[in-house]
Specification:
The chain is mainly β. It has no helices and 13 strands. Strands 1, 2, 4, 7, 10, 12 and 13 form a seven-stranded antiparallel sheet that branches. Strands 3, 5, 6, 8, 9 and 11 form a six-stranded antiparallel sheet that branches. A hairpin with a 4-residue loop joins strand 5 and strand 6.
């Protein structure tokens, strides 16, 4: 059996990055896919898994930086408060190249009923905004849960 979950940023609220890892939350829209095996809290950015199985994540954080300074964007996926995978990319370069992202693609993890996953992010260089301005509707978290019948 396969269950799906997907949520995107709401396109207007936004979240500023910081120099320390912070949970991506409070800027999510209502999930566009949310089978019964997932419970999502948009404020905390946490998705709780309802069945034991294997889960595959595809996640993207995109930022907009209006400063004339490079912006290095970090993304990490946590399970029950512990980082399981991370990435970092230069997301913007100067005052004309302002938008960019970091990605977690095709990451598979074994999960148990009740496990909680969340995205966290931070920056190096200039601060930037997730989910608003030039980066609206570009951030998402998507999951496929594979369970045995």
């Amino acid at each position: 059996e396969i269950s799906f979950f997907q949520v995107e940023d709401d396109g207007t609220t936004g979240q500023a990055t910081t120099t320390s890892f912070a949970t991506v939350g409070g800027m999510w829209d209502t999930p566009s896919l949310a089978d019964a095996d997932f419970t999502f809290n948009a404020t905390t950015g946490q998705v709780q898994i309802g069945k034991t199985g294997n889960i595959e994540f595809n996640c993207k954080i995109v930022t907009y930086n209006a400063a004339n300074n490079r912006h290095e964007l970090h993304i990490e996926l946590q399970k029950n408060g512990t980082t399981v995978i991370a990435d970092a990319q230069y997301a913007s370069r100067n005052n004309t190249q302002r938008i960019g992202g970091a990605y977690i693609m095709g990451f598979v993890d074994t999960c148990s009923q009740g496990d909680i996953y969340r995205l966290r992010t931070k920056h190096g260089g200039a601060s930037a905004t997730i989910g608003a301005n030039g980066a609206a509707k570009m951030t998402y978290m998507s999951a496929k849960l594979y369970t045995k019948l």
